[in-house]
Design a protein that fits this description.
By secondary structure, this protein is an alpha/beta fold. The chain folds into 2 domains: 132 residues, Aspartate Aminotransferase, domain 1 (Alpha-Beta Complex), CATH 3.90.1150.10; 241 residues, 3-Layer(aba) Sandwich (Aspartate Aminotransferase, domain 2), CATH 3.40.640. Helix content is 40%, strand content 16%. The protein is built from 14 helices and 15 strands. A 7-stranded mixed β-sheet has the order 2-10-9-8-7-3-4, with helices on both faces. A 4-stranded antiparallel β-sheet has the order 11-12-15-14. Strands 1-13 form a two-stranded parallel ribbon. The termini are far apart. The structure holds pyridoxal-5'-phosphate. The site of pyridoxal-5'-phosphate has 14 residues, from α4 and α8. One of its GO terms (molecular function) is succinyldiaminopimelate transaminase activity. Homodimer.
Length: 397
């Protein structure tokens, strides 16, 4: 020590100072203390398929994955990820050099940004954005440049001119999330083609968070950006078993991309967790090989839940942005005579016994997100029905 005590400056460093605790901690505590139904955090209240759970038990009993698995992930899972990308999207990735297993999509995002960014690089992300993006960009010393999705005829849309204008000589990377949390927007083929053209034209790297790839509804279609012309060599695609198989606690995610990109991401990843989720990796390998009927049923079930919650929210007086994907509904509270999502969400447990999340926490331009509130519908139908019954009280003021 050189005279100054270690506590005379803030303990949390400047890069992370703005990221104290997340809203989810506050809201989940509020849900507990008020006995509210928690539609805040997005995790399912029912576990995924029994056979997948059994596969994990079998792996654990057979002694597969109980010791450090290989750095890039167990070969069976890497093969299953590669086969999944090929079968669904016609994208082929070499099992040994172009697939990396991570501790959830969260680590894939962190490792990718830590690997690819130099301090001062700008990263364009779609606002509202998933909360770990801002923190990871900051940890990597990058600068985030939000491009705001704006409400337009019932959904939140990307303004391609705004995206184009946001690119500068310092832009290194586009961080795209589709299907998009929290708005439920699924970027269309035309929008993705325009994003791809821009990335090629300005020679940008692209990171796409596709953890909701299997949760698209009605006639929406999930298309990986990596499949567009000129994109394979510049795109890191991130996926996760958590949302697709309803095992968010297992933390099995992955990144796919060119050998050069995956090698770079691996360099950072090996010093974060090194490896994780041993036996679960074997189980997820089996899950990814489930027949198409599993994925179809998941979509149909989740769509039915969306419809229950969307109808209930509309009846309670919210403006509802019907999501084309994910398991979240964003609402506008202004028809209820409210305009401040933070105040509304802090009061909602007392008023109606339900917890939701103010979308403003996902914005740099907080005022742009102020009147929007997010509800998760990855819950049992009876729970959703109970929640919508409670929310009807809002009508009575
Ligand atoms: C849930 C979520 C993640 C994190 O996925 P894990 O596999 O649980 O780490 C990443 N991105 C988005 C958009 C998410 O909603």
């Amino acid at each position: 020590m050189t005279g100054m005590t270690s506590t005379s400056r803030p303990l949390l460093n400047r890069r992370l100072a703005e990221f104290g605790t997340t809203i989810f901690a506050e809201m989940s505590a509020l849900a507990l203390s008020t006995g509210s139904i928690n539609l805040g955090q997005g995790f399912p209240d029912t576990d995924g398929p029994e056979e997948v759970r059994e596969a994990a038990v079998r792996a654990l009993r057979d002694g597969r994955g109980n010791q450090y698995p290989p750095g890039p992930g167990v070969p069976a899972l890497r093969a299953a990820i590669s086969a999944h990308q090929e079968r669904r999207y016609g994208l082929s990735y070499d099992v040994d050099t172009e697939v990396l297993v991570t501790a959830g999509a969260t680590e894939a995002i962190a490792a990718t940004l830590l690997a690819l960014l130099e301090p001062g690089d700008e990263v364009i992300a779609l606002e509202p954005y998933y909360d770990s993006y801002a923190a990871c960009i900051a940890m990597a010393g990058g600068t985030r440049v939000p491009v705001t999705l704006r409400p337009h005829e019932g959904s939140f849309r990307l303004d391609l001119d705004e995206l184009r204008d946001a690119v500068t000589d310092r832009t290194r990377l586009l961080l795209i999330n589709t299907p998009h949390n929290p708005t439920g927007t699924v970027l269309t083929r035309a929008e993705l083609a325009a994003v791809a053209e821009l990335a090629v034209e300005r020679d940008l790297l692209v990171v796409t968070d596709e953890v909701y790839e299997h949760l698209v509804f009605d006639d929406a279609e999930h298309l990986p950006l990596a499949g567009f012309p000129g994109m394979r060599e510049r795109t890191v695609t991130i996926g996760s078993a958590g949302k697709t198989f309803s095992f968010t606690g297992w933390k099995v995610g992955w990144a796919t991309g060119s050998r050069e990109l995956v090698t770079a991401v691996r360099s950072a990843k090996q010093f974060l967790t090194y490896v994780s989720s041993g036996p679960f990796q074997y189980a997820v390998a089996e899950a990814l090989a489930l027949p198409d009927t599993y994925f179809e049923t998941l979509r149909a079930d989740m769509r039915a839940k969306r419809d229950v919650l969307a109808a209930g929210l509309a009846e309670a007086g919210f403006e509802v942005f019907r999501p084309a994907g994910t398991y979240f509904i964003t609402t506008d509270i202004r028809p209820l005579g409210e305009s401040d999502g933070f105040a509304f969400c802090r009061a909602l447990p007392e008023r109606a016994g339900v917890v939701a999340i103010p979308n403003a926490v996902f914005y740099d331009h907080r005022e742009a997100g102020a009147p929007f509130v997010r509800f998760a519908f990855c819950k049992r139908t009876d729970v959703l029905q109970a929640a919508t019954d409670r929310l009807l009280q809002l009508r009575k003021g």
